[in-house]
From TrEMBL:
Family note: Belongs to the IspD/TarI cytidylyltransferase family. IspD subfamily.
Keyword Secreted: no
Pathway of action: Isoprenoid biosynthesis; isopentenyl diphosphate biosynthesis via DXP pathway; isopentenyl diphosphate from 1-deoxy-D-xylulose 5-phosphate: step 2/6
GO biological process, alphabetically ordered: isopentenyl diphosphate biosynthetic process, methylerythritol 4-phosphate pathway
Site (Positions MEP for the nucleophilic attack): R152, K205
GO molecular function terms noted in the UniProt entry: 2-C-methyl-D-erythritol 4-phosphate cytidylyltransferase activity
Gene3D superfamilies (alphabetical): Spore Coat Polysaccharide Biosynthesis Protein SpsA, Chain A
UniProt-recorded name of the protein: 2-C-methyl-D-erythritol 4-phosphate cytidylyltransferase
Taxon lineage: Bacteria, Bacillati, Actinomycetota, Actinomycetes, Micromonosporales
Protein keywords: Isoprene biosynthesis, Nucleotidyltransferase, Transferase
Annotated source species: Actinoplanes aureus
Catalytic reactions on record: 2-C-methyl-D-erythritol 4-phosphate + CTP + H(+) = 4-CDP-2-C-methyl-D-erythritol + diphosphate
Enzyme class: transferase
Length: 224
C-alpha cells in the first residue's frame, strides 16, 4: 500500500446522548472505532493507520485496536481539525497519499476507501466522496422565517474518507486559520481543486440515535 489513513476519533458524541466518547460507543457489541478500523485495514491500498483518540483514552484505544490491526494512536484535540493535525504529524514524509476518515463513518466499505485512494493516485490533489441531497434545503432566518429555497441539484452531501496528496493536506492544515468541518474545505481555501467521486450509503455518519439503529441493520447486509 501507498496510503496513510488518519482517523479522527476524539469527539464526545454529544448528539448521540450521554455516554462514552462517540468512537467508543458500541454497535452490535463492538466500538464504532473497531468497526471503522477493521474496514480501513482491509483495504489493499492502506500502508498505515493513525488514530486520534480522546486524550483520556489513548492507552485504552491502543489496547482495543492491538488485536484488530497495526495502528498508531495519538491524543486528539478539542476540535476535529486539531485531532487530524495531531495524527497527520506522525505520518512519515515518504507517504504520498493521505486519507482522512471519521471513526463515526464506521461502516464505510473497503470499496469506497479504494475508490478515493485510486482517484488521488490517478492525479487528483483532493478527492471527496459525495451523495446527492435528498431533502429540499431552505435557508431560514433565526426567527424561523424562510428566506429561500436552495437549488438542490447543485448540492452534494460530503462523506469521508477524503483523499489528498500528502503535501497538499499538510499545506492546507498549516494555512487553516479559521475552523473547517472537513479537510477538503481547507484545501478549497488554498485555491486548489477538489474533485468528487461517488459516495456510499454505508458511509453514513453515526451522529444521532437513529443512525445507530440504521447501522445495526446495515451490519446484517453483505459488504459490497
Ligand atoms: O462531531 P462530528 O460527528 O463531526 O465528528 C466527526 C469525527 O471527528 C468523529 O469521528 C469524531 O470522533 C472526530 N472528532 C475528533 N476530535 C474532535 C471532535 C471530533 O477526532 N475534537
Amino acid at each position: 500500500g501507498d496510503v496513510a489513513v488518519v482517523v479522527p476519533a476524539a469527539g464526545a458524541g454529544v448528539r448521540l446522548g450521554p455516554g462514552a466518547p462517540k468512537a467508543l460507543r458500541l454497535l452490535e457489541g463492538e466500538p464504532l472505532l473497531v468497526h471503522a478500523i477493521r474496514r480501513v485495514a482491509a483495504a489493499p491500498s492502506v500502508r498505515m493507520i493513525v488514530v486520534a483518540a480522546p486524550p483520556a483514552d489513548v492507552d485504552a484505544v491502543r489496547t482495543l485496536l492491538a488485536g484488530i490491526a497495526p495502528v498508531t494512536v495519538v491524543a486528539g484535540g478539542a476540535e476535529r481539525q486539531e485531532s487530524v493535525a495531531a495524527a497527520l504529524a506522525v505520518v512519515p514524509e515518504d507517504v504520498g497519499i493521505v486519507l482522512v476518515h471519521d471513526a463515526a463513518r464506521c461502516l464505510a466499505p473497503v470499496s469506497l476507501v479504494e475508490r478515493v485512494a485510486a482517484a488521488v493516485r490517478d492525479g487528483a490533489a483532493a478527492v471527496i466522496p459525495v451523495l446527492p441531497v435528498v431533502d429540499t434545503i431552505k435557508e431560514v432566518a433565526p426567527d424561523g422565517a424562510v428566506l429561500g429555497t436552495v437549488d438542490r441539484s447543485v448540492l452534494r452531501a460530503v462523506q469521508t474518507p477524503q483523499g489528498f496528496r500528502a503535501s497538499i493536506l499538510r499545506a492546507a492544515h498549516a494555512a487553516a486559520a479559521d475552523s473547517h468541518t472537513d479537510d477538503a474545505g481547507a484545501v478549497e481555501k488554498l485555491g486548489r481543486p477538489v474533485t468528487c467521486v461517488p459516495g456510499s450509503d454505508l458511509a453514513l455518519k453515526i451522529t444521532r440515535p437513529i443512525d445507530l439503529a440504521l447501522a445495526t441493520h446495515l451490519l446484517t447486509l453483505p459488504d459490497p
